[in-house]
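Thread amino acids onto this structure.
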């Protein structure tokens, strides 16, 4: 369905050599070196070319969830559209961090209960939110495919506009319930380990949330056989569009900076659909949501940051951008031993003991 090309490994030894010959002990820039290598594999046709992050853009996908009416969040669904209005007004955490880091921000309505009439919101809705997943399928298979098509158009527009780094975040009351259910169905990891407190529910609500997820898994048991069916039965439409965004970005050769738990679940669905996608993903942080650590392990991902965030919106991804820019800057601009006239420690001279 998606033709994602594997990243280019043919330059690996030259890229390693370029990194190793910079004026530092071997490996001393740690994870920044890994990030530079990942970007180089995606972007470069010659190891001596420069990396570039052009028009980094945060896409925040907003959607409502039928299951939010069943006491699984501290808030009601009305907060989703209220927060989207806050995004448009520039007052949310994600606005502050995007401004701080010169990141463009775009908000996509993936079906909120309340439709906001504002041309700055990208309309990719097919209704007012999903159905309650423990009673019926959250959406149809057709809706999932439509969500992927919306996402592909969105990505194509940004790529045509010169963007070569996308970040994904979300807003949707109840979406840690949907995400935990999708994670459990995709991985077989027990529900209790996939489910957390989301916005900060108490222990009673957490129990209810787990029971509802178990009910949903039971309700759709015979259909949970592939990622598309799993997304249709259990997903949110914002999760579907994040999955579609990752698939399309990888297809266009654009890396994606992934935010927290919900965005990472979308990433897992994308990787299950097209494994080559994995090499285009950069996991910005490990959130405090129970399940995120297990999920990142499953994705074989080392998150860039661990800040105890539990917000979503794309905040962790926006905060990680400067580190990614630092990886690019050192790869492009740091002097080599030869250029700087510093004695190389790449191939250390073995002291033979001779006088
Ligand atoms: C005021 C407010 C702002 C938010 N911004 C992001 N989220 C986060 O919380 C929601 C997921 O948690 P749950 O599954 O418990 O509802 C998502 O909207 C997520 O982005 C927010 C939540 C609230 C209440
Ligand atoms: O990890 C996340 O993305 C997250 C955690 C809690 C609430 N909202 C989002």
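Threaded sequence (355 positions):
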């Amino acid at each position: 369905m998606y033709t994602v090309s594997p990243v280019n490994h043919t330059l690996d030894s030259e890229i390693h050599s370029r990194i190793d010959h910079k004026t530092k002990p071997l490996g001393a820039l740690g994870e920044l070196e890994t990030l530079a290598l990942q970007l180089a594999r995606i972007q470069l046709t010659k190891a001596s070319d420069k990396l570039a992050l052009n028009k980094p853009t945060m896409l925040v996908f907003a959607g409502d969830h039928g299951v939010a009416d069943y006491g699984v969040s501290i808030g009601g669904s009305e907060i989703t559209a209220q927060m989207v209005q806050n995004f448009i007004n520039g007052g949310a955490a994600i606005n502050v961090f995007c401004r701080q880091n010169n990141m463009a921000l775009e908000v996509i309505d993936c079906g909120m209960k309340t439709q906001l009439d504002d041309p700055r919101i990208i309309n990719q809705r097919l209704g007012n939110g999903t159905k309650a997943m423990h009673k019926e399928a959250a959406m149809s298979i057709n809706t999932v495919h439509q969500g992927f098509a919306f996402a592909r158009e969105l990505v194509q527009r940004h790529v045509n506009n010169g963007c070569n780094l996308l970040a994904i975040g979300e807003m949707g009351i109840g979406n840690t319930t949907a995400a935990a259910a999708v994670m459990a169905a995709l991985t077989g990891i027990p529900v209790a380990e996939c489910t957390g407190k989301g916005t900060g529910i108490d222990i009673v609500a957490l129990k209810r949330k787990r029971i509802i997820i178990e009910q949903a898994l039971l309700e759709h048991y015979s259909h949970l056989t592939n990622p598309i069916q799993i997304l249709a039965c259990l997903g949110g439409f914002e999760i579907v569009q994040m999955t579609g965004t990752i698939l399309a970005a990888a297809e266009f050769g654009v890396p994606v900076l992934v935010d927290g738990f919900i965005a990472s679940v979308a990433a897992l669905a994308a990787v299950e659909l097209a494994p080559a996608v994995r090499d285009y993903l950069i996991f910005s942080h490990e959130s405090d949501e129970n399940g995120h650590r297990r999920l990142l392990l499953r994705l074989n991902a080392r998150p860039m940051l661990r800040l105890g965030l539990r917000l979503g919106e794309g905040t962790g991804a926006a905060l990680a951008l400067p580190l990614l820019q630092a990886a690019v800057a050192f790869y492009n601009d740091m002097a080599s031993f030869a250029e700087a006239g510093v004695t190389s420690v790449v191939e250390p001279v073995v002291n033979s003991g001779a006088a």
